[in-house]
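Many introductory courses stop at the sequence. We go one step further.
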Amino acid sequence: MPTTLTFFPVDNGDMTLLKLGDPAATTLLIDVNIREGADDPDGEARDVAKDLRDRLRKDENGRPYVDAFLLSHPDQDHCRGLARHFHLGPLADYPDDKKDYKEKKIVIREIWSSPIVFRRASKNHTLCEDAKNFNTEARRRVQATRDNSFAVGVGDRIQIMGEDIDGKTDDLGPILRKVDETFNEINGSASSFFTARLLAPINAIDDEELEECFTKNQSSVILNFMLAADAQTPDGARFLTGGDAEVFIWNLLWQRHEHEPEVLEYDIMQAPHHCSWHSLSYDSWSDLGEGAKVDDGARSALSQMRGGAIVVASSKPIADDDSDPPCIRAKREYLSIVGDAQGAFYCTGEYPKADAPEPLVFTITAQGVQPPSKKEAGAKAAAVVSSARTPMPHGMR
């Protein structure tokens, strides 16, 4: 099976499933936003929990699982429904073996977590219960890892995204992923079907003023993946994902990588912060309207597209009003960006139509990212800039 990326329609929130094309169909879930209405058979929200379970494998005990779960940052719209739908705690305490499959909690074989993001976020607001539950589970796994000299198994594994202050992560070398380094480990094994470069959170520092900027600008885990299409095509596509990172972070990343822009290159990107204007500008869209100015550095960081690249806004339908997020002005900027690459822009809340959204699935092939078939795309794409829906072959990029 090919590598796929599935973006679930979760209104303003993120929930993205990466399924690798390896024999094990290895899965990484990035964030989760399962609203209570999605669990109500009579509710209007799509049952994305069922959509997710339908795409997961079962273990030897019949339990659904993801090989890894990344929480980009602990806002509620990125972790909502975690405790309701995922097993937290030692695997020996799994409670649902006698339940129907649709009611079984999903096992998280490995967690990807950033203590820096949690610490910065907690300065701004009180963490929701799901965020607290995730943090408790991450801490449990770190302690289990320390207690067992890194020899832990499924259900106890964790990878740490970024170095924390005061030496808190100094002893976690085997599971610590540092900024600007690449890794290809998932659930205890190296993979030949992906490498990921950690771009943020930027390392914690002693500069209080700069740390405050990191906190205010929605510090999130930012990763740029290189995804294999198959065993012979390791660079099938680049996927850039960055949670709710805002303009200051993207501007800083451009300052750091302006002379090596390939670090930020992508074939498919999840528009930061649900297509928010604040990822592209310091100005308020609702206050200044068309007078709001784009930040050149942030736009440059978010413009490093390869030919035929795609931007996906994980948001509610984008209206031509003063809402933010999603913001119509941000959408126009992304349309301009993808237009330069003969690419496409999609909104999960509008696919295939606003009153009946469905999961949006992209397939990674040797020719690049393949969106839904041309027939589907003609009817379902929220906005397509070029009539050529198929990305350029790599040799033409």
